[in-house]
Amino acid sequence: MIVADSLIVYAFVAGSVENSTENPTAALAVGLVLVPVVFLLLAFLSRHPRAPNAVLYAMMLSLMIGVPLAAFDVVAALTLGFGAGGVVALARSEDDSWVARSIAVVLVTVYIVVLLRYQVAAALFGSAVLPLVAVGSADEVMERHAERLRRLGQG
């Protein structure tokens, strides 16, 4: 995800620099090709019961959210798009909630937008890593919450 994010951001930045002789199209193409590969690995390695469908839905959701938002802020669009795809691609247990996952991704996106104004390098790295970490963290919090409720119900 880091490589895909970096290549896509590079393609947008290189295309906006005046008197640039570089063609960012190849970087954009490779970055966009790597995104479904990441979702594919995420779905199959998490043993999603319908992994091929999950990858397709993750990619469609990522594009539907990321492309319109890219007109305003490319890094926020990548963060929210990767996170939305991760919400769909990662297998869920009965305790996990897509609402908690979505809230975590939105909070990470807000954090990245604020961080982008103060520390660009950290924001660019975080935009590639933190969305999927947030999805996993939301799952962990929901599992702990469900376990606590089970213990209270038995006691």
Summarize the SSE layout with pairings:
Elements: H1 2-16, H2 25-45, H3 51-69, H4 74-89, H5 98-118, H6 120-154
Structural description of this entry:
- The chain has 155 residues and is an all-alpha fold.
- The protein has one domain (2-154).
- It is built from 6 helices and no strands.
- The protein has helices at residues 2-16, 25-45, 51-69, 74-89, 98-118, 120-154.
- Helix 2 (25-45) runs antiparallel to helix 3 (51-69) and helix 5 runs antiparallel to helix 6.
- The longest helix is centred in the last third of the chain and has 35 residues, at 120-154.
- The radius of gyration is 17 Å and the shape is globular.
- The model has no long low-confidence stretch (mean pLDDT 89).
